[in-house]
Amino acid sequence: MENAAYDVIVVGAANAGGFAAGAAAEKGAKVLVIDKKANSEYLYRNTIASVDSHAQQRAGVKIDKRELVEFLSAFAQDNVDQQLLWTWVNHSGEALDWLEEKVLKPNGDHLYATGDAYYETLMNKAFPSGNEITADEKAWDWGWGKYVIATDQALGVEFQYNTKLEHLLTDAQNRVIGVQVEDTETHAVREITAKQGVILCTGGYGANEALMQKWAPTLLKKNTYTQSPRDDGSGQVAALEVGAARDLEPASIIFDRGAVPVGTNIDDYYVKDWQSHQFVLGSYPLLKVNLRGERFFNESAPYQFAMNSLMHQPGHLEVMVWNAKTMDNLKQFHTLGCSRLGWPGIFSTDGEKKLLQDYLDKGYVQQADSIAELATKMHLPVDQLTKTVAHYNDLCDAGKDTDFGKEAYRLFPVDEGPYYAVTLGGILLATLDGLHVNSQMQVLDQHEAPIAGLYAAGNCAGGFFWGAYPDRVPGLTASHAVTFGRLAGQCVVDA
Question: Fewer CB within 10 Å: C terminus or N terminus of the chain?
Fold first, then answer.
């Protein structure tokens, strides 16, 4: 057993882990961070939600805490711990202020608060929660993770990479006193002790298909890709071994923009890698049909709702249909979050057009001069797609969607060529169901009592999300990680 006099061990060196380590070190703890991979700085996410950060105060952005907690509770049908929601609402601004003052500003960055949260319908209720990490308010700084790690190291935090958690160590009273780890290069196994506690920041389980089948089998029918190939669920499994409780129902964040080849069978298509696969236009509320060529839902909805609706459609995939004229009118749709047009969205109009050409070149997007030709290329019934498009154009001309209620400003006709179509499935960004924790981030056992010495934050910690992700609160997953990571680091030392 390695006795290096660590007070706190943090497992996972990404968003929650970086903030946890820094918070514990600021309180004087000797902190070790372990991570199973060789690097983690690229994992730090942009667009981070908060309530009442200094950046939001500068921008005049105000969010009613009670209204936001009520919305999040209702969105999850109260299958969440409201104490955790209030803990996040009351501490998220503080976490982002620490990030801006201690980490970003010394490196030439700052937070830019996004004030736009326009919506017209209850289904699209939105909040101006996002904070963007930027130097010039023209682009994101995607490399800010290295600043967090450097700040932690300056506080005395030690990082050991290529070090994978195998099991938690406990004493006779089941207090967690350390970790058993494996060196992923040499496969040597060793034990490391922690005087005050272990904080799990190990993420979800979206890359572990066995756990997916066990805990969230429908996600394999909703998603064509996962962008979290690290997420093997090992931290949650280790906690279960020492008696932890976890959420009984799944939660996840899915984007509706996973472009796949024509004819894909979702039952045998689940790609796990770091490539984007994001055809961002897929998150625009354009005409979408099922594999029979029928329109089947209101396309103006949170990202994940499309994948939920597809569980009732043949093949669980959708086909989006639009035309060249649409590409010059994208601003009309007024999308929010990362799908918004122009920064702080991912693409401008020119960027969307370039992405379209890239997917045309790959053969994922099909182009045609007629709807009949497009239907043939997409393996859709010609008569039905022709009928669907004609009827949709009538709705657009009338300015009222009498079928599914899409807002008038998001109705745009597909009435002249060239025409485009693409098959879309879900992209699983992360699973969000996890270990039961209290408002001090202590992991709870089957009786909802704290397991001494064990804490969790980020996507391995549950009780905060249920079912679909509320993407109209932009940056909520990232903020859930960094806010609760920082709280975990403070609480483990104060316990």
Answer: N
